[in-house]
Design a protein that fits this description.
Order of helices and strands: HHEEHHEEEEE
Largest sheet: 3 strands, antiparallel
Oligomer: single chain
Radius of gyration: 18 Å
Structural class: alpha+beta
Number of strands: 7
């Protein structure tokens, strides 16, 4: 199938003037499975690599067992850090694939600037005291 055939086969949704809302997502037919709503816009994400899915699953599973009640594990690396900073979420971590090895970038919200600052880059072992004590062997994520 040629790209122009695909274009004519799918009708892209036209956003309302004020942007999309969460309620709109339930009403829009045939959205791709990785569609997200960020600041009123639909964002179409590509599926993640097998490494990413396995590593995120591993880290999420371990973190869920380690973090105290009331804290959550969420994911994104582009637009959500700004959204989280605006919401004054104090901690943000980013997971990357470095030649098949997990690397975790840890950020903390600077209360004066309301922006995230890097507090560490962890390659083999993730050990932090905030937002709670965590000691995690990243090499086991392979």
């Amino acid at each position: 199938m040629e790209p122009e055939d695909l274009e004519s086969a799918y009708r892209w949704p036209i956003p309302p003037t004020a942007g999309w809302t969460g309620d709109d997502l339930d009403l829009l037919p045939d959205l791709p499975p990785h569609t997200e709503l960020i600041d009123g816009s639909l964002v179409f994400r590509s599926p993640q690599t097998l490494f990413h899915m396995r590593t995120v699953g591993f880290i999420n599973h371990r973190l869920e067992a380690l973090i105290p009640p009331g804290l959550e594990v969420m994911r994104d690396r582009h637009s959500k850090p700004l959204t989280y900073a605006r919401a004054e979420i104090p901690h943000f971590w980013r997971l990357e694939n470095n030649d098949g090895r997990a690397v975790v970038y840890v950020y903390e919200l600077d209360p004066a600037t309301k922006a995230y600052v890097a507090t560490g880059i962890f390659r083999d072992r993730l050990k932090v005291a905030v937002p709670c004590g965590i000691d995690l062997d990243l090499t086991a994520a392979r």
